[in-house]
Amino acid sequence: MSVPEGRLRFTVLRNGSEIGSHTLSFDVTGDDLVVHIDVRMCVGFGPFTLFRYHHQGEELWRAGRFVSLDTRTDNNGEGLRVSARRVAEGVSVEATYLARCILPADAAPLTHWNVAAMSGRLFNPQDGKPLHAATRCQGMDLVALGDGKQVKAVRYSMDGKLPIDDWYDQGMVWTALQAKVKDGSTLRYVREA
Q1: 159 against 141, higher pLDDT
Q2: Fewest beta carbons less than 10 Å away: which of 24, 59, 152, 154?
Q3: How many domains does the chain have?
Q4: Global pTM value
Q5: Helix (H), strand (E), coil (C) string for the chain
């Protein structure tokens, strides 16, 4: 697992217009890695707010293995919580609209920063539901960072209800994201240099 130093920050664009940010900070102590997640988006029209989203979470990894996740999300006024823990039987997930379920031991949250998740079983950190999507490595692309500099990055495409592409630079650090969202618009993440 490749762990970025300090923090990663992305500008979130919807159809080319800035609507928010996605920030991750990484704290390493011995074999433990704690990842703090903060995503904020707001779509408006003039003085009117049409959509507001705030997602916060904390992941714990130990010696490269997923241990736990706790998130809370305000999805346009709807409050969601997810709690996931490694247990003897696998990964126990409880969420606002999901009865406790046990996922396989290799399950991890799709929080995008960890390229290793692209080859395992995933669950949604916003609602706790298992994701049933195939992921394919698509090869190298050039990806622009926030300062305009281009870097080589490998692209992984995930199919499913809403397709997602994630890019990782040569150090396998998360570099970009592009996805179609429910209303048909395109969401794009641009990483700060």
Answers
A1: 141
A2: 152
A3: 1
A4: 0.92
A5: CCCCCCEEEEEEEECCEEEEEEEEEEEEECCEEEEEEEEEEEEEECCEEEEEEEEEEEEEEECCEEEEEEEEEEECCEEEEEEEEEECCEEEEEECCEEEEEECCCCEECCCCCHHHHHCCEECCCCCCEECCCEEEEEEEEEECCCCCEEEEEEEEECCCCCEEEEEECCCCEEEEEEECCCCCEEEEEECC
